[in-house]
TrEMBL record:
<feature type="repeat" description="WD">
    <location>
        <begin position="187"/>
        <end position="220"/>
    </location>
</feature>
<dbReference type="Pfam" id="PF25173">
    <property type="entry name" value="Beta-prop_WDR3_1st"/>
</dbReference>
<dbReference type="InterPro" id="IPR019775">
    <property type="entry name" value="WD40_repeat_CS"/>
</dbReference>
<feature type="repeat" description="WD">
    <location>
        <begin position="103"/>
        <end position="144"/>
    </location>
</feature>
<feature type="repeat" description="WD">
    <location>
        <begin position="61"/>
        <end position="102"/>
    </location>
</feature>
<keyword id="KW-0832">Ubl conjugation</keyword>
<dbReference type="GO" id="GO:0030490">
    <property type="term" value="P:maturation of SSU-rRNA"/>
</dbReference>
<dbReference type="InterPro" id="IPR051570">
    <property type="entry name" value="TBC1_cilium_biogenesis"/>
</dbReference>
<dbReference type="InterPro" id="IPR015943">
    <property type="entry name" value="WD40/YVTN_repeat-like_dom_sf"/>
</dbReference>
<protein>
    <recommendedName>
        <fullName>WD repeat-containing protein 3</fullName>
    </recommendedName>
</protein>
<dbReference type="InterPro" id="IPR001680">
    <property type="entry name" value="WD40_rpt"/>
</dbReference>
<feature type="repeat" description="WD">
    <location>
        <begin position="669"/>
        <end position="701"/>
    </location>
</feature>
<dbReference type="GO" id="GO:0032040">
    <property type="term" value="C:small-subunit processome"/>
</dbReference>
<dbReference type="Pfam" id="PF25172">
    <property type="entry name" value="Beta-prop_WDR3_2nd"/>
</dbReference>
<dbReference type="GO" id="GO:0030515">
    <property type="term" value="F:snoRNA binding"/>
</dbReference>
<dbReference type="InterPro" id="IPR020472">
    <property type="entry name" value="WD40_PAC1"/>
</dbReference>
<feature type="repeat" description="WD">
    <location>
        <begin position="585"/>
        <end position="626"/>
    </location>
</feature>
């Protein structure tokens, strides 16, 4: 038996380039005894805790695979509840950074989390329309509340009462009595989705934000006297017992519902506060004291309101009364009438607009904290991978908003569209629409940031002291890394400069653009105007005119051939010296977006928007094999140095490794949560860097662990089976209706395995019991004393 070919496994090494993800919310956390300094933000599947004063990452709460969608700190500040895309919830300790508790109950992503006043219970709302209340101390689910017809957007506990209020995209706000797990009141005054809830004025007012520019305010009246539900019925039924029995059950239940609602609270609309923004409310929240209310829409403006206390309202009323009396007295003296003394406070006077905070980009979420001195701190999570902190004094006559800090250096503002490794495998180049960054691979620190135009392709100049960027406007930008300055900008193409390839002799490079041209460039030294020394520059030497837009260009390793991918779905091969046509590779149904040539020049692999990868021979241009590679467009492809293994990445969020000799899929690297735009392999093949639409850069490392394909396939089949078992729907019992309460747990592969273990234990118990009875019968027949053989029965049964 021949020895099978061994491959080495690539594993995820690090996540960097992301400051905060967009799906979750930002919150202040108490760390090292300090409040208002540290913020927790979602970062793909992890949670990063940033020091806003220093702009440094101080703690990482490690996640598993799913993206973080919701965060909530415990009232004591020691724990952090984290909700994930798959519906699971983990509670982390902020002291150790470890996830102590895991809750599984939701079938879709968690949209909201909230602790009660003591921190013993946690409520979660999800896109699966369910609300679940969890017991944090016993690490178990208490009950599931059903009633919403669309995703739950917010859930809040009341501090003094055992009540819960929830809002959803079904336009409803529901009140739940947690003693009876019953929805006793539904507010139906909204015409659009309700996106946010907030309690103010010591929970005597509820403010709701919907998909319009109106913040609706509701007055809450708590009824202290708990009346007996049977008492009104006894007063009503004055006739004979036979007449009382004739009352229908429907009337009784409706009357009980009305009495329960009236027994707990009354909720009436008090009015509305108009926002400046015309779009929907994205986040509506108050600070911990409930004194400051803030909200924002889909724009970059955070509107801040101040809720007056009862003492302040009384003082204002007295002042208003004095003015009204004075005015009425003057009027009565003129008209000889008695003064009237009726003065009312308007809603706009009780909830006053303080100011608006204008952020540098669209706001995704925010958090507030009001210091004992009256200073308000607001931290904003922005859409462009930035965290900003602002300070203002809401009690001032004209509040001045001051930006205290801004965390930007750890990532790009937009998606990274090109990556490159230096020749020594140490430096990584990443370029986006606004900047180029150089990262140290070992420390993952950003060591250079340089402003640029929209970058599409890049390379390190031989020597690793300069870099070249190709832009969307067709320009070539040459940067010096030592000084971080732009040396030269050349107008290379009339359209987008899609691809750049360094020549194997390292004396020049070739570019291809949307102007249907392939241009050849050589490096040269020119005299610098600012100094006596010479500096690097480039000059154009030749041009190759084609009939279609050029999408990708690649040199063969011996520099004899040049491969050009065109918009007509073909790849043309030319001789480099004479630029004569050699081969045409046709077969893709959509344009070839990426390609690469193996180190020995024998194979060329092409990846297309038709989701296929084709492997061709460069000698005759014959297609060796066509592989269905990804579930969406193949965005990037690169061979591993000194081998016929290559990597592809696609819009299906996956990176895959292939063997071009055996035409086999070797390994899938999963981790990105959005489309993967590009990847770069280090020259020695030990590292991969990839970038994605989720703003993250991921580093993958080749380990010494051998990868056996048969075992890999078996593990993949097991994972698929476990996933299918966990997703199976619960059997519906005939005649059974789904009530508004239910069990908190859900079917997972762990619960299935636990149930199987219990069934095995029960079966073993039955077998041992049968053996015991048989033994007793034999002993009885023989007339011997019966001894119980209990040593065979497991102790846990």
């Amino acid at each position: 038996m021949g020895l099978t070919k061994q491959y080495l496994r690539y594993t995820a090494s690090a996540l960097f380039g992301v400051i905060a993800s967009q799906k979750g919310n930002i919150i202040y956390v108490t760390l090292r005894g300090e409040k208002g300094r540290y913020v927790a933000v979602p970062a793909c599947e992890h949670v990063f805790i940033w020091d806003t004063r220093k702009g440094e990452k101080v703690l990482i709460l490690q996640g598993l695979k799913q993206e973080v969608t919701s965060l909530c700190p415990s009232p004591d500040g020691l724990h952090l509840a984290v909700g994930y895309e798959d519906g699971s919830i983990r509670v982390f300790s902020l002291l150790s950074g470890e996830g102590n508790v895991t809750f599984n109950g939701h079938k879709a992503s968690v949209t909201t989390l909230q602790y009660d006043q003591l921190g013993g219970r946690l409520v979660s709302g999800s896109k699966d329309t369910d609300v679940i209340v969890w017991d944090v101390i016993n690490e178990s689910g208490l009950y599931r509340l059903r009633g919403h017809k669309d995703a739950v957007t917010q859930a809040l506990f009341l501090r003094e009462k055992n009540l819960l209020v929830t809002s959803g995209k079904d336009t409803l706000v529901k009140w739940w009595d947690l003693d009876t797990q019953h929805c006793f009141k539904t507010l139906v005054g909204h015409r659009t989705e309700v996106w946010g809830l907030a309690f103010v004025s010591q929970e005597k007012r509820l403010i709701t934000g919907a998909a319009d520019s109106e913040l609706r305010v509701w007055n809450i009246t708590y009824i202290q006297e708990a009346t007996d539900p049977n008492e009104p019925e006894s007063k009503k039924s004055k006739g004979s017992p036979a007449a009382a029995e004739k009352t229908s059950e429907v009337d009784e239940t409706s009357a009980l519902d009305e009495m329960l609602e009236e027994r707990l609270l009354r909720c009436n609309k008090a009015g509305s506060i108009m926002r400046a923004g015309r779009d929907r409310v994205v986040t509506l929240a108050t600070d911990r004291t409930g004194r400051i209310l803030a909200c924002h829409g889909t724009d970059s403006v955070l509107e801040v309101f101040c809720v007056l206390t009862e003492d302040e309202i009384c003082k204002k009323m007295e002042k208003k009364m004095r003015k009204a009396k004075k005015k009425a007295k003057l009027k009565s003296e003129e008209e000889k009438e008695e003064p009237e003394g009726s003065v009312e406070m308007s809603l706009q006077e009780e909830i006053q607009r303080v100011t608006s905070i204008k952020a540098s980009a669209k706001i995704k979420s925010f958090d507030l904290i009001l210091s004992p001195k009256g200073e308000l701190k607001a931290t904003l999570l922005l859409q462009n991978n930035t965290i900003e902190s602002y300070i203002l004094n809401p009690s001032a006559q004209v509040p001045q908003v001051v930006r205290a800090s801004k965390i930007t250096i750890g990532g790009h503002r937009s998606d990274v569209r090109t990556l490159a490794f230096s020749s020594d495998n140490i430096a990584v180049l990443s370029a986006a629409a606004e900047s180029v960054k150089i990262w140290n691979r070992s420390t993952l620190q950003c060591i250079r940031t340089m402003a640029c135009e929209y970058a599409l392709c890049s390379l390190f100049v031989p020597g690793d002291r300069q870099i070249i960027i190709g832009t969307k406007t067709g320009k070539l930008q040459l940067y010096d890394l030592a000084s971080g300055s732009l040396l030269e900008t050349l107008a290379a193409h009339d359209g987008a400069l899609w691809s750049i390839s360094l020549s194997p002799d390292q004396r020049g490079f070739v570019t291809g653009g949307a102007d249907k041209c392939v241009k050849f460039w050589d490096f040269e030294l020119v005299k610098d105007e600012n100094s006596t020394q010479k500096r690097l520059s480039v000059k154009q030497t030749r041009i190759l005119q084609l009939d279609e837009d050029v999408l990708c260009v690649r040199y063969s390793p011996n520099q004899k051939l040049l491969a050009v991918s065109l918009l007509d779905c073909t790849v043309k091969i030319f001789y480099t010296d004479t630029l004569k046509f050699f081969l045409s590779l046709y077969g893709h149904k959509l344009p070839v977006l990426c390609m690469d040539i193996s180190y020995d020049g024998a194979l060329i692999a092409t990846g297309s928007a038709d989701r296929n990868v084709k492997i061709w021979g460069l000698d005759f241009g014959d297609c060796h094999r066509s592989l269905f590679a990804h579930d969406d467009s193949v965005m990037t492809l690169q061979f591993v140095h000194k081998s016929h293994l290559f990597f592809t990445a696609g819009k299906d969020h996956k990176i895959k490794q292939w063997d071009a000799d055996k035409f086999e899929h070797i390994q899938t690297l999963e981790g990105h949560h959005q489309e993967v735009w590009c990847l770069a392999l280090s020259p020695n093949g030990d590292y991969i860097v990839s970038s994605s639409h989720d703003k993250s850069l991921r580093l993958w490392e080749r380990t010494r662990e051998p990868l056996i394909l048969e075992e890999e396939r078996e593990m993949q089949r097991e994972a698929e089976y476990e996933e299918s078992v966990a997703k199976e729907e619960q059997p519906v019992v005939a005649g059974e209706t789904q009530g508004e309460t239910g069990l908190a747990g859900k079917k997972t592969i762990e619960t299935v395995k636990a149930a199987e273990r219990i069934m095995e234990a029960i079966e073993l118990y039955r077998e041992e019991t049968a053996k015991l009875k048989e033994h007793q019968a034999i002993c009885k027949a023989a007339g011997k004393e019966v001894k119980r053989p209990g040593h065979n029965i497991p102790s846990g049964v």
